[in-house]
Amino acid sequence: MSAVCLKNSYLLIGASVAKEAFGDDPQVSVVYYPDRQTLLVAGKSKAFFEKMHKTSWLLLKDRNLLGDKSVNIRELLIDNDLDDSDRDLPYDLKTTGILSVTL
Q1: Which candidate, 18, 51, 63, 98, has a CA 20 to 30 Å from the CA of 12?
Q2: Buried b (16+ CB within 10 A) or exposed e, 57-67
Q3: Which pLDDT value is given to residue 1?
Q4: Residue 6's pLDDT is what?
Q5: DSSP line for the chain
Q6: For every one of its 103 residues, what pLDDT tens digit does the chain have, with 9 covering 90 and above?
Q7: CB-based burial of residue 100 (10 Å sphere; 0-12 exposed, 13-18 middle, 19+ buried)?
Q8: pTM of the full structure
Q9: Strand 38-43 and strand 56-59: pairing?
């Protein structure tokens, strides 16, 4: 598995990326920008992110004991008519702790 991938409509995030981006946050704030085909994901504790973007909250689930995480983005994929095929996703982890994923 790549550090960030899509599988069965779940955004799977490798342990090292998840820990750096979200710390111990149990929820994430997400926003999708169709014009850039970009999903931005931030830990719930990043209050500035919610003020800057019109976000939704999603549950950040433990995927395994290694620390990998998953987020169900099925609704977002359907609402935006996005490709839901399983694949590795290009991403960028900003210095602010915001995970930017290209869908």
Answers
A1: 51
A2: ebebeebeeee
A3: 61
A4: 98
A5: --SEEEETTEEEE-HHHHHHHHTT-SEEEEEEETTTTEEEEEETT-HHHHHHS--EEEE-EE-STT--EEEE-HHHHHHTT-----EE--EEE-TTS-EEEE-
A6: 689 999 999 999 999 999 999 999 999 999 999 999 999 999 999 989 989 999 999 999 999 999 999 999 999 999 999 999 999 999 999 999 999 999 9
A7: middle
A8: 0.94
A9: unpaired
Contact between 54 and 60 (Cβ < 8 Å) = no
Q: Which residues contact 11 (CB under 8 A, 6 or more apart)?
A: 4, 5, 39, 41, 70, 71, 72, 73, 89, 101
Q: Which of 83, 80, 84 is nearest to 30 (CA)?
A: 80
For residue 24 the two structure tokens come to 């111990």
